[in-house]
Amino acid sequence: MASPTRKRRRLTICAVTASAALIALPASAAPGGTHQPFGPRTMAGVAQQRLASAGALTPHTAARDEDGGDPDGGNESDEIAEGAAQFAQARTAPGVVAPGAFGAAWDSLQSLHRTGGRWRNITDLPYNSDDPRYRDIDSNSSGGSGFVTGRMAAMAADDDGYVYAGSAGGGVWRSRSGGGHWTPISDKLPTQATGALALDTSGRLWLGTGEATTNADAYLGTGVYVLSRPHHGTFSRRSRVGGDELESTTIHQLRFGAGKVWAATSEGVWSHSTRHLSGHWKLEYAPNPDYLPGHSKANDPEAPYKNITNDIAVDPRDPSKVLLAVGWRSGDDYNGFYARKDGTWQKVTTGLGDLPTNPDDVGEVTFAASADGSRYYAIGQSPEQLSDNPDSSLEGIYVSKSGSPFGPWTKTADYHKLSASGSALTDPGFMPGVQAWYNQFLAVDPGDSDHVYAGLEEVFESTDGGSGWSTVGPYWNFGFSCWSIDPSEQTGTCNQTTHSDQHGVAIGRYHGKSYVYVGNDGGAYRRPLNGSKDAAGHATDWKSLNDGTIDTLQYYSVGVGKDLARRGGVSVTGGLQDNGQSELRAGDRVMGSNFGGDGTTTITDPADGCNIAQAYVDLDIQVTQDCGVNNGAWEDDPSKATSYSVAPPDSASGEARFVAPMSADIKNGDVWVAGGRHVWVQSKGYAIRSGSEWTSAFDLGKGHTATAVASSGGKVYAAWCGPCDSQGFTRGIAVGNADGTGWHQVGLPVTGTVPNRYLSSLAIDPEDAQHVYLTVNGFSRQWTEGPGAGVGHVFESRDGGTTWKDVSGDFPDVPADSAVFLPGGGLAVATDLGVVYRGPHSRAWKRVGDLPAVAVLQLEVGPDGKLYAATHGRGIYTMPVRELR
Question: For a surface tag, which of 103, 229, 384, 437 has the fewest beta carbons within 10 Å of its beta carbon?
């Protein structure tokens, strides 16, 4: 869900990680001025930005023709697209990463000796997005999503009460009770990124790895796996179907027909026998095969965008007839629908009825067939609408009443019709389908071919074949007359809704009753298949299935401080993808959310865990000194708000990265450093109340943006990149003092000790500010084809950054994200596949405990002597530092 004062979008895909742009509204100003509910204020701001950006988003075809081949649409340079490639850039620039990199890294990591100690998950408990304790001005609490967890990319369910939830970065989970009481079933795999889940007619569960939503933090996968007895078993590497043909792809859909499983992937459409699971996958169709791995243009920067496929529609009456939906959401000449004719796949240009065939109108597409074969449904997104229409990128929802995917198709809904169906998205600039390239699902009631569920940002239901629609799962309850901020009323007279941004859907039965299960950016929800609705068409019977036994929370950061109100304990907080900032107080059995939207970087006072600075995207910072506790009284008396916007100027100018760095000086916690184009410093600590209180210590230079900052005793290090993608990638390090004196750029040639890759973190020795470690993201030149990609991931300087030494040693060749000095002199490093440790006076690295193959984006040592790991898909883990050895 978006923040009540902020909203975001996503755009773009890259080679190793998919990436996206998110809209960032300015954080709420210092309290005052408005008594409007959160939602309308947010939507008004979003509308202004979307309206201003109309025409700036250009289909990929036009961008390529005019600009010579930018891999993300050429001139998607407005605020909507500023954050687009950042998660991917860190892992791919300066080149394209070859398939097999993650698999090799996982094997290398597993071969390391293991430290002592065991990780303990501390966020495996319910996370209440509507927690009545936290209703300050920047919270989403009272929006109606209830208990949430991380993004669910796919869902599957059977008629025996078994439900399977595939998370974006936290693996696949099983419930035996119709949802809830979850257990993980894919932890043994070398990837935890889910793209597709499907049950075949014999009850086997198929898993397509690699999330395909082309958003800011989607990881590639290692192929397709099958579980023959999903009620009891778990996935293993031995259960992979075929060879390594689908490694390092994303898999959008798995469909079945005529003894085959079909896979729509980021590298074409493939098929495999469902009877004989060994043997190679067959490439059925790739629109631009020269760009596939091993071919002549495999290292071209455009390669990740040239063979994207979305779905496969198999004719139920004749499974030999298949329609492919092919196309990159920002547009390309190859976009369209394809069918086999005269032994080859050819673009279908006529005969589909209302279903568009112009490449500019065919982007992301999802199909769904009725069980009786009488209906086919489709959702279509339009690259041209994405470019030119500030309100929506939805082309439409369609039905084929012949039951054939070849139509004729009739358009049953557009975004205007859906907006009028009880939607919360009614303001120009942000209407249903505005993120149709990211949010899509379709499912048909097995017992009624005219009963269909459609997912965009919201959940829609039709009981008459698409002629009429109800918004049964509105975006949130803000703006509705039933809404109330009063904690005693929770969400007023409004019913619970789902979290926003829909991705997966399934229909199953539990105790003889049919349910629809939906997966979205807040986890998994269900309602009776033929549930009840109020007068507005909103469902009255959604149930959150995020009961705390499933933890797929996607943290960017973690902060730890003493909980002064509960002696002997700590307060743990962290920024999350689309789930704000979590707050876990000592003794809590339920976490609350004290900030909304996308939470990124965090600073927490070790001496008082209620002193918190939380960054939304693009260095948009809020600060609180009471953990964000508020009963909503600010709605009537603005002076009672206790969260403040303190964003430095680079946030408003767009000169900061999507996840922008900030940190407190390790010698003086009142001195903070934040990085955009400038290195910003403020010395009021948590008492800061305005963005004007930051001063610019150094200008990194036009086009340069900070990727990491650290300071000790006033000595500041700032790493930067710019350009940050593969088109002329450059990086550097600037060193100086917090008072603005002594600044200089460290000489880092393109080829040399420090590779020409993304510089992800800096860790300063608490005993000596001249002694600093640098971590480098991406893969080495073994996997990356790019100028100066180099080798190594960990580098050390003992002279203030003047010279560097590669101390990687046997460090696995895996993207490194964060480093932290440990008491006693050891060093811990977070990577995209876990945590490694090097003891004092040692050159050998060890694997820290046993984690699934999940990205760890930040490490922090708490005042309780424990190491905290913020994972992007499996919550926050902790381990006593003394147990590392």
Answer: 229
Tokens of 310: 């979305």
How confident is the model at residue 70, as a pLDDT?
Answer: 33
Question: Which residues touch 520 (CB under 8 Å, ≥6 apart)?
Answer: 151, 152, 455, 498, 499, 500, 501, 502, 503, 504
If one counts every other C-beta atom within 10 angstroms of the C-beta of residue 777, the result is 24
- DSSP characters over 135-160: -STT--TTSS--B--SPEEEEEE-TT
Q: Which residues of the chain have pLDDT under 70?
A: 1-85, 216
What is the C-alpha separation between 821 and 816, in angstroms, rounded?
15
pTM, to two decimals: 0.93
Token pair recorded at residue 478: 């803000």
pLDDT of residue 786: 86
Contact 825, 840 (CB under 8 A): yes
Structure tokens belonging to residue 709: 């900052």
**Residues 826 and 837 sit within 8 Å (Cβ to Cβ):** yes
Distance CA(706)–CA(191), nearest Å, equals: 29
What is the Cα–Cα distance from 27 to 236, expressed in whole angstroms?
A: 45
Task: For residue 791, count CB atoms less than 10 angstroms from its CB and return exposed for 0-12, middle for 13-18, buried for 19 or more.
Answer: middle
What tokens does 550 get? 């499933």
What would the pLDDT profile of 428-474 be if each residue is shown by its tens digit? 989 999 999 999 999 999 999 999 999 999 999 999 999 999 999 99
DSSP strand pairing (678-682 vs 543-544)? unpaired
Number of H helices, E strands in the chain: 7, 60
